[in-house]
């Protein structure tokens, strides 16, 4: 069972990166590289560095605390024996909360272009069924636009180092 550690506010506000680095070293001693990828350890470090720069520090304290609790959870519970469902639940509880902050900083999620292109496909199908597709010669233009745009944005984010794996 996971036991949440209590971190002083001052440590969370001013020493977050050092605490994450210490926990990363502990996790590297316990797990192999394959398991560390499943834990998204570099993603946590990236989120920690972004959150530590955000001000006012007290506003983002709970998000920082969630990052530390995520690492503590993997230190206390053996990640090798966790099912995919359990790992996803832990990720959802602790990491996904900071997605809006990461997106406001210009970070993009990997593979999001799939959903945007499906939206474009739905628009194209709706136009086809309502017989409005004659205006653009029955070509899936919205699908192609969202597909190309999404892939371009993902490649640009990867090039700039702003691509989130989670």
Structural notes for this entry:
Keywords: Membrane, Transmembrane, Transmembrane helix. The chain crosses the membrane at residues 112-129, 135-152. The model has no long low-confidence stretch (mean pLDDT 86). This protein has helices spanning 9-14, 16-30, 33-39, 41-53, 61-76, 84-94, 99-104, 112-129, 141-159; strands at residues 108-109, 163-164. It is an all-alpha fold and 166 residues long. The chain has a two-stranded parallel sheet with strand order 1-2. The protein is elongated and about 65 Å long. It contains 9 helices and 2 strands, in the order H-H-H-H-H-H-H-E-H-H-E.
The helix/strand order is HHHHHHHEHHE
Write down the overall geometry: elongated
Number of helices: 9
Tally of distinct domains:
2
Biggest sheet layout:
2 strands, parallel
Q: How is the secondary structure organized here?
A:
Layout: H1 9-14, H2 16-30, H3 33-39, H4 41-53, H5 61-76, H6 84-94, H7 99-104, E1 108-109, H8 112-129, H9 141-159, E2 163-164
Parallel strand pairs: 1-2
In short:
By secondary structure, the protein is mostly helical. It has helices at about 10-15, 15-30, 35-40, 40-55, 60-75, 85-95, 100-105, 110-130, 140-160; strands spanning about 110, 165.
Keywords:
166 residues, mainly alpha, 2 domains, two-stranded parallel sheet
